Amino acid sequence: MSTGKPSLDLPFTNAFLDKYSPPQIVKWAAETFGEQLIMTSSFGAESAILIHMAATVFPRIKIVMVDTGYLFPETHNFMAELRKRFDLNIWTYRTQNDPIRYLQDADEEDPSWRKSVEQCCGVNKNEPFDRAMKELAPAAWLRGIRRDQADTRKERQIVEWSKRNNCYAISPLLPWSGRDIGLYMKDLGLPYHPLVAQGYLSIGCNPLSCTRPVQAGEDPRAGRWSGQTKTECGLHVDHTVEPTT
Ligand code: SF4
């Protein structure tokens, strides 16, 4: 880890943060890391919740948003709405590819489908994300993942050391269920992404291969990379927990 960044005893830290509520975890993160704390947001279905928690205790927190070139127009509109409502400090990192040219060069003939989601996510989603983390070099990063979203997230800890990003990854919403999220958002009158009303309960890019609406009773993330083995875009993969600092 670079000098000048706080160093944590992870087992001890997670033991006491397990007793904190998500807003308390966000407050702890802001107090512990100060200006060296950033957050990422996809401006997806329930993104307003973590954005609201973070902006409440750290109004100018840098919010990294990755623009793959294939987002729904509604996502851009939702981001603009939240930016205006909460006066957000959004840092958009865009793919280096022209979205149309990429499809031609990658032999992706059908714009509504990706034959190779790994390749497309690699160069259009993970590359801008890695560039953002390298340029901003945060000491810690708030992210909105929850344990109940995917099997790959069940073992996650509230604070983990990310070797990939050379910083701590903090997940305040990790223990909350979809019901907890819904109640909190209702209490505060926070808005959902506009496509939620059309059955899109987890929202990424707009090719049908990557996001589709779900049916009643389906898992909210069933609409992501539907019918494929992929369950993660890769931004939250490769984070390892160190037993101590
Ligand atoms: S989610 Fe789909 S369109 Fe978006 S970067 Fe990944 S493969 Fe490409």
Fill in the CATH topology: Rossmann fold
Q: Provide the list of bound ligands, each named once.
A: iron/sulfur cluster
DSSP summary, beta strand count: 6
Q: CATH class, anyone?
A: Alpha Beta
Written overview of the protein:
- The chain is of the alpha/beta class and 245 residues long.
- It has a single domain, classed as Rossmann fold, CATH 3.40.50.
- 33% of the residues lie in helices and 11% in strands.
- It contains 7 helices and 6 strands; from the N terminus they run ααβαβαβααβββα.
- A 6-stranded mixed sheet has the order 3-2-1-4-6-5.
- β2, α4 (73-86) and β3 (89-94) form a beta-alpha-beta unit.
- The longest helix has 20 residues, at 117-136.
- The chain is globular and about 50 Å long.
- The N and C termini lie close together (10 Å).
- Residues 239-245 have low confidence and may be disordered.
- The site of iron/sulfur cluster has 13 residues, from α6.
